Design the sequence.
């Protein structure tokens, strides 16, 4: 999972509820001091939340961009259901479109970004209706399903969640963490985990393990695309992300010193890469 350095938003950011036609979503809404040069909607990854982008919010706002990071349905502080069908990818894509509409910017007004699982949701939303988006950024999110080792992990987690409490699963996961990670942000991460809906985790974990290749559909949207990753990635191999970027004719950025979560590993250079891409448009 991504490990944000803090769960406390920076001064430029307001924690609020985004009211949409498909329900309410918890967001962190960061605004620049002057009229924004653009607005970005940021979708987090599997087991993650809006706080995964928290260290990028101030650099983005300082560069003149409004950044709205969202908890998807059933993630952390956004409500969800106990029905797995509520988290079908098409439903999550429609949520992203509703969130975009609620920002009130009209067609072509929003830069859409998704990290990992959020990238699969973001591209599904763009395929469903590209009109509201100015660009699409896929951060550490590949062309199809995750590598086999991660598919196995997703199945083990799904099986555990079907029979065990969230608390017991959390303790089992922490037992396998390296000591340094086990001591980092423990209570905040546990609180976030406990507020996720098990059905959301089971359904989206299955999506990660079975996602088809939709690169041609993304290319057909005509949106400018940016593929961002760290130098190493154990979920989608970096060479696979390079190949996907080539197929999309996308801008390609590797963040030095980062792994699967450049947004938390190296937030400032990651934010700078995003700003450079958005500025170019």
Sequence:
């Amino acid at each position: 999972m991504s490990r944000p350095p803090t769960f406390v938003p920076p001064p430029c950011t307001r924690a609020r509820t985004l009211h949409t036609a498909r329900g309410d979503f918890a967001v962190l809404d960061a605004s620049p001091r002057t009229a924004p040069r653009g607005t970005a909607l940021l979708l987090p990854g599997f087991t993650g939340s809006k706080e995964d982008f928290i260290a990028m919010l101030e650099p983005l706002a300082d560069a003149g961009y409004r950044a709205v990071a969202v908890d998807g349905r059933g993630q952390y502080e956004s409500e969800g259901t106990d029905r797995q069908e509520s988290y079908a990818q098409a439903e999550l894509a429609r949520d992203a479109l509703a969130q975009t509409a609620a920002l009130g910017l009209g067609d072509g007004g929003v830069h859409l970004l998704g990290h990992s699982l959020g990238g699969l949701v973001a591209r599904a939303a763009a395929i469903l209706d590209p009109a509201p988006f100015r660009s699409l950024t896929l951060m550490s999110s590949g062309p199809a399903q995750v590598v086999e080792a991660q598919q196995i992990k997703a199945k083990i987690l799904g099986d555990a969640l079907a029979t065990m409490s969230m608390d017991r699963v959390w303790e089992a996961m922490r037992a396998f963490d390296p000591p340094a990670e086990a001591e980092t942000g423990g209570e905040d991460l546990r609180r976030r985990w406990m507020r996720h809906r098990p059905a959301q985790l089971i359904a989206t974990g299955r999506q990660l393990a079975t996602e088809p290749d939709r690169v041609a559909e993304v290319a057909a949207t005509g949106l400018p695309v940016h593929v961002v990753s760290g130098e190493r990635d154990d979920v989608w191999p970096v060479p696979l992300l390079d190949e996907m970027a080539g197929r999309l004719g996308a801008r390609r950025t590797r963040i030095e010193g980062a792994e699967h979560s450049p947004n938390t590993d190296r937030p400032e250079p990651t934010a700078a890469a995003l700003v450079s891409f958005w500025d170019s448009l």
Notes: The mean pLDDT is 96. The first strand starts at residue 13 and ends at 20.
